[in-house]
């Protein structure tokens, strides 16, 4: 009977090994695609710009006045805007809620923000005369299932969230210290979107995350070294969103989990400015992109599954049900058989 129990336990252990529970926190990064020789890139975004079911990457080249959108091969340019006046940050998302993604970017030197359809020609909305137009984000800020847009005016000290009509103001923060960037997403993983605002001024270099009421502070970081454009998303592919932001003068980019723990930090960078989280290479795992302004580079790090086992995000643990059932069946059958054999031997 002992041999039979041992065989049963071996079978159970084998199934657990195949399930691969241990690698859940073992996602690793591998350098993938990089653009070099750029003229002061600033902002970057990952999303399905042309609505073909595959994500692309968009980034700005501020000093050259360009905005590019590349396919995931890193070579094919889908769309390019040229002759702009210092384009800064960029966002991809369904601004007008028609089921198709759009692209928004700021033109800091001219005080403009544009939202284009994916044809790159049709302007859905344009704001002009802004005082230091800089950050832009598209997302459902007020959690009504319709996307909104957030804009920062660094010189005016304002951050404004508009409905998709571009007129109705949902929320506005004033008297801020040079707000330069913004991100919308569910940072604390409660099912409701939040907003992250970056203030970049002497004595007030900080990143603060608010709930959608615009008052309740979820988390804030102070005393930073010129923080730049943030991103909210599932960096480590564990089913929970994280927050990443660069520090320009410190030469580093840090990724934090929702409890404020550092997940990853990139150091020794040349003036990092914007970051993005998204599945750029369309393999089902989120990747990570960041910009080095003075280094003239945009880099995408691919996330890869660890070797061996089946990687399962924490929000997909229900997928383990068949395996757990199999383990239970093996264990119960083994014990029942052992008991039956023991009783037969006693009767004999």
- Cα-to-Cα separation, first versus last residue: 16 Å
Low-confidence stretches: 3-28, 309-320
Please, how many helices?
Answer: 2
Shape: globular
**Cα-based radius of gyration, to the nearest Å:** 25 Å
Q: What fraction of the residues are assigned to beta strands by DSSP? A: 35-45%
What is the helix fraction of residues, given as a range?
Answer: 10-25%
N to C succession of SSEs: HEEEEEEEEEEEEEEEEEEEEEEEEH
**In which order are the strands of the major sheet placed?**
1-24-23-22
- Say how many strands there are: 24
User: Multimeric state of these chains?
Assistant: single chain
Output mean pLDDT.
Answer: 86
Main beta sheet, described? 4 strands, antiparallel
Structural class estimated from helices and strands: mainly beta
Question: Mind explaining what this structure looks like?
Answer:
This protein has a 4-stranded antiparallel beta sheet, with no helix packed on it. Strands 2-3-4-5 form a 4-stranded antiparallel beta sheet, with no helix packed on it. The longest helix has 27 residues, at 321-347. The chain contains 2 helices and 24 strands. By secondary structure, the protein is mainly beta. α1 packs antiparallel against α2 (321-347).
């Amino acid at each position: 009977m002992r041999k039979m129990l041992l065989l049963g336990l071996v079978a159970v252990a084998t199934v657990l090994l195949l399930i691969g529970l241990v690698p859940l926190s073992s996602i690793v990064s591998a350098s993938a695609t990089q653009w070099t020789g750029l003229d002061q890139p600033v902002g970057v975004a990952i999303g399905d710009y042309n609505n073909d079911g595959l994500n692309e990457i968009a980034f700005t080249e501020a000093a050259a006045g360009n905005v590019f959108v590349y396919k995931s091969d890193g070579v094919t340019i889908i769309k390019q805007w040229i002759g702009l006046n210092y384009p800064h940050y960029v966002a991809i998302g369904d601004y007008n809620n028609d089921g198709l993604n759009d692209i928004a970017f700021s033109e800091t030197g001219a005080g403009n923000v544009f939202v284009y359809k994916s044809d790159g020609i049709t302007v859905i909305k344009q704001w002009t005369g802004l005082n230091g137009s800089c950050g832009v984000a598209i997302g459902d800020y007020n959690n009504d299932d319709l996307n909104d847009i957030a804009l920062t005016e660094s010189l005016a000290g304002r951050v404004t969230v508009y409905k998709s009509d571009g007129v109705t103001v949902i929320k506005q923060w004033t008297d801020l210290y040079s707000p330069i960037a913004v991100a919308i997403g569910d940072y604390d993983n409660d099912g409701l979107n939040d907003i992250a605002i970056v203030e970049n001024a002497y004595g007030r270099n900080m990143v603060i995350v608010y709930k959608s009421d615009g008052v309740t502070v979820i988390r804030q970081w102070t005393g930073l070294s010129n923080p730049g454009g943030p991103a909210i998303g599932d960096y480590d592919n564990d089913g929970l969103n994280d927050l990443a932001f660069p520090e320009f003068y410190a030469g580093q980019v840090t990724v934090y989990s929702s409890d404020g723990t550092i997940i990853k930090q990139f150091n020794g960078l040349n003036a990092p400015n914007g970051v993005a989280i998204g599945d750029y290479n369309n393999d089902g795992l989120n990747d990570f992109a960041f910009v080095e302004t003075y280094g003239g580079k945009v880099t995408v790090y691919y996330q890869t599954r660890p070797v061996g086992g089946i990687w399962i995000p924490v929000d997909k643990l229900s997928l383990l049900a068949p395996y757990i059932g199999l383990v239970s069946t093996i264990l119960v059958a083994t014990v029942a058989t052992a008991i039956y054999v023991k009783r037969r031997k006693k009767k004999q």
